[in-house]
Amino acid sequence: MDFPGDRLYSEYHLWVKLERNQAVIGVTAYAGEELGDVDYIELPQPDDIITRNAACGTIETSKAVTDLIAPISGVVLESNIALAESPEALTDDPYGDGWLIVVEASDPDEFEELMDARTYEEKVRTADDE
After folding, report:
1. Which of 8, 85, 106, 123 is buried most deeply by CB count within 10 Å?
2. Structural domain boundaries in the chain
């Protein structure tokens, strides 16, 4: 399983990629594998404020409805509206076309709470072993 090194990762299996002063957020390949086939995605809309460790959307699969837990706080600049038409991109291309939202972070210190790729991979491997 691939965890790109140019991103940070949350304990809730979301990735954050910093681009200029913005953060692109998506679901990790591990989470996508665990979710299975995605039926519906509800995302925050531009100008919505999200708060770290609080629900900011949902993913519905045949297995369950799962909350998306924000890895950082900030203002949503863009939502990936293409996921409404093609939710399978979330699992087919989680680090590319399957991105969720772009956020202007309100507290840069929150990035220090996220994991690098190696730490996240170790966490996933440990969870799989249990």
Report:
1. 8
2. 8-121
- B/e letters for 73-108, b = 16+ CB within 10 Å, e = fewer, are bbebbebbeebeeebebbbeebbeebbbbbbebeee
> Does 126 score more than 90 pLDDT?
no
What's the pLDDT tens digit per position in 10-46? 999 999 999 887 999 999 999 988 888 999 999 999 9
Longest dimension (CA), the chain: 40
**In which band, very low, low, confident or very high, does the pLDDT at 130 lie, cut at 50, 70 and 90?**
low
Full DSSP string of 108-129 = GGGGGGSBPHHHHHHHHHHHHH
What is the CATH number that goes with domain 8-121?
Answer: 2.40.50.100
How far is 50 from 105, CA to CA, in rounded Å? 9
Q: Are strands 38-42 and 55-61 parallel, antiparallel or unpaired?
A: antiparallel
* DSSP H helix total and E strand total for the chain: 4, 9
